[in-house]
Amino acid sequence: MPRETIALFLQSANSGIRVICSHRSNPLSCSFAASYETESIENAARAFAKAVPPATISAVYIIVEASSADTKRIEPALKAVGFANVSLLNYDSLSASVAIDSANITCEVGEFLVYLFTTFDLEAGFILQKLQNGYKFVKMSYNVPYAIAKYPALKHVILDDVDKCGTIRNECRSLYPGKECHFVTFDPIAEYWKYLWNKFDNGNFGGNLVEEAINVDLVFKFSNFCVPFVLRGMPFPLTTAFQLDIAEASKLDVYVKHNATGVPLFFKTFNFKGKKDRVLNVTVAVGLDQAVDVSVDTVGPVVASAPMPLADGKVGLKLTTLTSAYQYSIHSKTGTTTSPTFNSIDAMVTDVRRKVPPKSVHFIFYSFKPTLTDEMQIDAHQARKQLIKYGYPCLNFTDSLRPMASQMFFGYKDCDAIDEFDNYDVKTVVSIIDEREENTFTDFGDRNVIVGCTRATFKRYQNLYYQNVFNHDDLDGYMVYDFSNVDFTVSWCGNSIELSTGFVTPPYDWTIELDLGNACRLQIIASYPLCPEGDAGKVFKVKEIGSSKVALTFSVKSEFEADVNCVALSPGRILEPISLCLLIERTAKGFRKTVYFRDSDKAIVDHCPNMFVALEPFKQAKYTAIFFDATNSTVAERQTWNAEATKYGFKAVKFVNGPVLMLNSVLLGVDSNNFGDKETVLIADTTAVDKAGQKTPLTYVLRSHQKKLKLQKVIPAKIDKVYSTYSVDRVFVVVDEASKRPKVPAYLNPVFLQVSNQFISKHLFSQIDMNSDTEAVVDHITGTAFVAEWKGSNQVFNIEFENVPFSRHVAIHVGEVKSLRIKTTHLNSKQRELLKEFSFKTPYDRVVMLNIAADEKLQFTNTKDDTDEAKSSRL
């Protein structure tokens, strides 16, 4: 057989080993074919070499559909008998490339399409993207109709429908409405040889070549658990790792799956000595030869044995709502006893009373599933009512998610389990496996993945969890607290408004003010029962209230309890439309979000990785003023934040400088009438932190005028270093806690001021209330300097401490230049941000007139007064 012949070496789990060859003279047909029933790869290679001399073969391509362990053996076996150019063929690349080529479609560079790789599952396939010379794998999914929602411009869906089945084609069209479905049929021998010869010639298959990617999946099995690990479509070489909780399993079996519908084939087993609780670190590697390797190491678990937190001689009760029944368990220091199931709450409570007297019970938990129905809620309240009636301790409501999540987060550490991984900046994912169910974890990217076991987790940490609950501890920071999302409907005299708390931690109170006009009655309905009996809502008669202007306070008391209170307001009161203030501040790890409540020192603080997480869960924007701390933010960022806040519907959007906000808040406790005119005031801030979150000393220099203070300088130094450079009249020191005052020189004779939520809240509300009697002591400033740059020169306009709104005309002699750049820089910062660039058509000695301005939202503008070249000023 002459040179310019290529061979295909196929190993299949069902049909053994086959070899076929093709010659250049007739490239789309077979010049040799043979089957070898032997199970030995080495024997098959020798038989092939005997039938076809290796010197006559230009290249051998391998397709493997058997155990991945064989992949590493085939290439050496063929080379050992004389075949020189041997490589593993990527079957997914082959099949996808052939399907796209047969579909005869045209895609623009950057466009996406779907290739469905089997008619047996029309939701399984690849999302591909067009490149300059072919296509690349973007994503493999077993739920393509859901996955393509992220690619709204995707137009083409391709299916290899060799059977030309009308039913399958109709089903495909219904699954992908609005997409162009292409059903391709082709001669596989001809198309495959076309692909192989193109590969041999290093071609791009007419622009339809799909890049190679991993084309196998793994399946891990232990005890009664099955954990698929999806690799298909990922680039190689690849090394990835995840944690796998196998509890007390004595072995871990690994299987290889070569296609979506195929049966997993055994790959290897890991055996473990002794019955021991284990968490494994599993490492999966795929080399350039596409061979898969798996290794494991034992990494845990955390041992946290603890006794059940029970008083001597007493037990704990756990009541559970199942899918269609009820059950309880008795927890003692020696073990747990589980009751049979009951078909009603009454039957379960009757059994509890018969077997467990009230005086022997230390605590009661009622555990719900997160998908609790209204009927189940009413049952739960009924159970609590009956048990309290018969002398049992107060029943604690909880869902089944929070205890499980708390214990898993504690056991595995640093864990998140959120669907929108990118939006919420998720770093670690806990995927929960349930007994006798097939579980998978895909779309997690390069995040830290932990496959957790519920049964093992509860066995390790349940007692410790109960201890922390009753001792009001936080489980080392991993406690998931109660949360509730209650929707209220408020109706009066033909008017109706919908209010949502969003997910909040009880107890949570929120007040709004309403004018009921001529209404006779006011009705409020909540999504959860407003009392243990499960009433539909509350009704207030306006005549009994005593005023048509009212304050409604919505109270979320627990996860499944809500209430509302109505208080009359003075008929002459001007109602405030804003009841909450939301402050967003940048931190070293994202943003700090603080919610302030009107006339309250209460504040709720959340730390968020990005602005989306800070704003998306907040559902009370209509009644909220949002304040952004503009410190160290760019003009572009402030524009984006303003647009986002407007999109979410906040009642007011404000921007503040952090130093001014802090100064106005702490000075609320100081009578500004005591300031003389033109006094120099130093304020040391011992609470300030830098970009990295580390404490850093700051000293503010202010000058008094007409009962107000003008900020003149911010110095990153301790106050005693600044004091000697000024003639100082007053000194203040800002501290976190009044009881923990820092040591300062006695000659400073300072007054200590404490940062408090009450003062911050009062200042923020004073900035948006229509009838506020509180005035800011320190005026709002730009916090930014302008810098003009041109041809090796620059001029700085130090307007950092000018009040906003601000506007000034300036003249700059720039000479003969082609361009002028205007930049901004923050307080005490060397970094500059380009704001605008002006270009000039003709060079001459030029003076440019600029208007630099800043509005109350700290949006900066600058305009060149003379844009007409003929009118530009000359020297």
TrEMBL record:
Domain of life: Eukaryota
Entry protein name: RNA helicase
Lineage per the UniProt record: Eukaryota, Metazoa, Ecdysozoa, Nematoda, Chromadorea
